[in-house]
Amino acid sequence: MTTPTAERDEPAASAPLISVRDLTVSYHVARTGATLTAVEGVNLDVHEGEFVTVLGPSGCGKTTVMNVVAGLVAPTSGEVLVDGRPVTGPGPDRAVVFQDYALLPWRTVFDNVKFGLEMQKHLKGDGWRDRVQEAIELVGLSGFENSYPKELSGGMQQRVGLARAIVAEPRILLMDEPLGAVDALTREVMRDEIEKLIAATGKTVLFITHSIEEAILLGDRIVVFKSHPGAIKEVIETKLARPRSERSVQSDPRFLELRDHLWDALQAEATEAAVAGGS
Amino acid sequence: MSVLFATGGPRVARGGLAGWLAGLSTGGRAAVIAVEVFVVLLLWQLIVGYWGIINPVFFPPPLAIAQGFAEIVANGSLAANAAVSAQAWLTGFTIAVIVGIPVGLLMGASLPVDKVVGPIAWTIYATPAIAYQPLAKAWFGFGIGPVIFLVVISALFPIMLNIAAGMRTTSPSLLRAARVYGGSQLDLYRRVFLPSTVPFLFAGLRQAVVLATIGMVVAELSGSSSGMGALIIRAANTYQTDQAFAAIGVVVCWSVGMTGLVTLIERRVAPWTRKARR
């Protein structure tokens, strides 16, 4: 049931949209003078329209990989190609949804969603107003255009984050534990909504999560990370039919099989991490 | 004691005086405060004015202060001195704002500037304004000059240092978001750093109002022939303590009023901070 490497049989020999090649990122820690390797030798191809979930223990470097793809962190060695071109910085083809929402507290919902377009200088003419409004409707926040972020629940704030990401129509959505700070009930509802939203828009998604269920429910493929140093442990195809929903999938034998496998993989990883951390 | 216990145990419902106070509307709460003030003033009046337990020369009763207020209004000394003080205060505060905001922004934006200006600013800020008063007389003579100087030096640093702190504590996650969406360096400053510094600016302004008023009175207390501080010291020296208290009351009203004005402006300019405070 598992494919040991990142390679997979593509029906067509199309070039991957995101190509992470032998990526290593290390940081220099000023305080101790040591060099910390966040990720080492990561190879991953993501094809157009694919939903890839990234699963791993804390500190395994999965966010670092996403930051390199986003253009926020430069690789120490190796490279990331998006649509065949090396990533040298952020670009309008990629948008990020952050775990802590990262909404501007002094802006209303409408103005926060507008922010994505504004930074890319897309505010000429009148069309942008409709695009902002459409994005707000798409995430189900109609009527809250003039609310400030702190007047909204965590789930609603993340909907704003999602609308801000999709309004600029990027090809790639990078989601860094977007539901990590949301309460359990809202998380289940929003998983289903994200699944529907992505299916409708056909975006390519890299989705980081701590949750095994989330990784299975949303992903076409699941990339499992290990830590010390951060690297890919294995890549699994979920092979579950879409559309999926929380309730339909959870009784599927394939889901249970995947969950057991991922549990074992992560538990071994967490134990190792605890031992390494304690030594 | 019953008030203390009312909010204590888990089984005790919120009752008694505490519960009653908590349940009051805004108007009701204002009425309670008004009654409180009235009771205090009444007791004060009785103890000093009626029973004469304290010598009224040292601690004049409320009605005498009201009379003193009427006197300084009638003989024109309040208007004349208040005008001088207001002029010095407003001039000094304006200078502090004009200098403090850009320097604070520079300190927040540039580490070298912060390293050079920061220690000097903190040193001056940490020194009581009264210590500069004799020097101010030597430098600026006996007119309005030393008063303006002390207002500036009192108001400048809370504004400057709060703004610098505001810039530096701008959320890294907001900056990252702005960069992800393609924001330029200028965008980061205009759209992220500046707006997130606004609440710090107003916090600094509120502190500056109070400190500027203290600086003003301190400067006027000695060697000045006019201003509210001069009025207070002259009245006290001639045993007209009722007039002195009336003048102090006016200064308090100015300080509280200007702080309120700053808060009012903040609510207009930065409505998103409104719920954060309460």
UniProtKB/TrEMBL annotation, chain A:
The ABC transporter domain covers which part of the protein?
A: 18-252
Record flagged with keyword ATP-binding: yes
Key words, A-Z: ATP-binding, Nucleotide-binding, Transport
Q: Which domain of life is it from?
A: Bacteria
Query: What is any Pfam family matched here?
Result: ABC_tran
Would the keyword Transmembrane turn up in this protein's UniProt record?
Answer: no
Q: Name one GO molecular function term.
A: ATP hydrolysis activity
Q: Which InterPro entries match?
A: AAA+_ATPase, ABC_transporter-like_ATP-bd, ABC_transporter-like_CS, ABC_transporter_ATP-bind, P-loop_NTPase
Note the PANTHER family from the entry.
ALIPHATIC SULFONATES IMPORT ATP-BINDING PROTEIN SSUB, TAURINE IMPORT ATP-BINDING PROTEIN-RELATED
User: What's the protein called, per UniProt?
Assistant: NitT/TauT family transport system ATP-binding protein
Q: Which organism is it from?
A: Agromyces terreus
UniProtKB/TrEMBL annotation, chain B:
Which Gene Ontology BP annotations are present?
transmembrane transport
User: What family does the database annotate?
Assistant: Belongs to the binding-protein-dependent transport system permease family.
Q: Membrane-spanning regions, if any?
A: 30-53, 88-109, 116-132, 138-161, 244-265
Q: Which Gene3D superfamilies match?
A: MetI-like
Name under which the protein is recorded: NitT/TauT family transport system permease protein
Q: Does the keyword Endoplasmic reticulum apply?
A: no
Give the UniProt entry's GO cellular component terms: plasma membrane
Q: What's in the keyword line of the UniProt record?
A: Cell membrane, Membrane, Transmembrane, Transmembrane helix, Transport
| InterPro entries, per database record | MetI-like, MetI-like_sf
PANTHER family according to UniProt: ABC TRANSPORTER PERMEASE PROTEIN MJ0413-RELATED, ALKANE SULFONATE ABC TRANSPORTER-RELATED, MEMBRANE SUBUNIT
One Pfam match: BPD_transp_1
- Record's superkingdom? Bacteria
ABC transmembrane type-1 domain: residues covered: 82-263
Q: How does it sit in the membrane?
A: Multi-pass membrane protein
Compartments it resides in: Cell membrane
